[in-house]
Amino acid sequence: MIEKHPNNQLLQRLTVKELGLLGPLEAVSLAAHEPIEAANAPIQYVHFVETGFVSVVADGASKDPIEIGLIGDEGMTGMAILLGDTQSPFETFVQGAGTSLRMRSSKLEEVLLEVPAIRTVFLRYARSFATQIASTASANGRSSIEARLARWLLMVEDRMGRSFPITHEFLSIMLAVQRPGVTLALQTLSFGHFIRTTRGNVEILDRKGLINCTRGAYGVAEREYLRLFPALTSP
Description:
The chain is an alpha+beta fold and 235 residues long. The protein has two domains: 9-115, Jelly Rolls (Sandwich), CATH 2.60.120.10; 140-222, Arc Repressor Mutant, subunit A (Orthogonal Bundle), CATH 1.10.10. Helix content is 44%, strand content 23%. The strands form two sheets. Strands 1, 2, 3, 4 and 5 form a five-stranded antiparallel β-sheet that branches. A hairpin with a 2-residue loop joins strand 7 (195-198) and strand 8. Helix 6 (145-160) packs antiparallel against helix 9. The chain is globular, with a radius of gyration of 18 Å. The model has no long low-confidence stretch (mean pLDDT 91).
């Protein structure tokens, strides 16, 4: 059972009674690179992320993976369950180690049918996540590597804080960019004093400047989330 106020923002939107209707939520640790959902396979658990973040990744025709979405404490995994399905064509795995509260997908399916208020909150998040995916597609098709990287770093900062671990190799996979291109883009942002990079770590130094570097690629999905979920007051 939940023995403390949940750190997940979606669960914070529910009443105590609604939280109880979800049943016992299991607190689990999320290790970096741990699989959460396999592509084209039944989803066993839905995770309400509390710390860290997970990535939703698609494989292209060449089987080179590319990230299409990030989920942190603002959301949940298992979007297919919310939309009446049992699986997704995309893979979901832990990118930033942390913690979550999880429940079985079969139990969530029951709750969604029986409790419209909970269904409304979770579907509103699915709407927000769809906007994030659309914004990622737009950025991938129209933005420079530097702008895409700046956007991605801002999205991670939103979920992990101003300093977080990352490698050039992993960035190249997530952004579907060759590693030399990622290295050059990181150097460009570093020379502009927007970020500081050390071995395996990035620190955001100038958030406003980094937002300008995205040339509008960052902000659409974030504003939509705030429209759908106005800021909560402290419990």
